[in-house]
Amino acid sequence: MEDKELYEKLLGVKEPWDVIDVTVDMQKGCVAVKLGHPKGTKFPCPVCGELCAIYDHEKRRWRHLDSCGFTTILEANVPRICCKDHGVKQVSVPWAYASSSIASTALAVDATSF
After folding, report:
1. Among residues 61, 93, 90, which one has the least CA distance to residue 75?
2. How many domains does the chain have?
3. Range of the domain at 18
């Protein structure tokens, strides 16, 4: 299993999103996971749900749970769509809380269970 496939499974990435690159910086102790989507993908308007063409993108970063002690950062160019009824809106991404720089995955470990 390659690193991109591994992180797709670990993060639960689903279409239309893909892991397009994974970079490990051993000196900084950091893993950067870049996510993207195929060109021409349409996304639903966050207000009405109608599939809309992409207007532009905004580069975003999120802090995720550590990977084997390495700081893990998710990076993506998040689309803004142009809805005929609601104008330009930023789409939601499944791995993040709205308007947050923290990934939504939560993990609790009961240390007494080991």
Report:
1. 61
2. 1
3. 3-98
Cα 8-14-18 angle, rounded to 5 deg: 55
Run of H or E residues at 19: strand 18-25
108 domain residue, yes or no: no
Specify whether the CB–CB gap between 92 and 98 falls below 8 A: yes
Question: Is 66 part of a structural domain of the chain?
Answer: yes
Residue 91 contacts by C-beta under 8 Å, 6 or more apart in sequence? 43, 44, 46, 78, 79, 80, 81
**pTM for this entry:** 0.81
pLDDT digits (tens, 9 = 90+) for 28-42: 999 999 999 999 999
Backbone region of residue 3 per phi and psi (left: phi > 0; alpha: psi in -120 to 50; beta: other values):
alpha
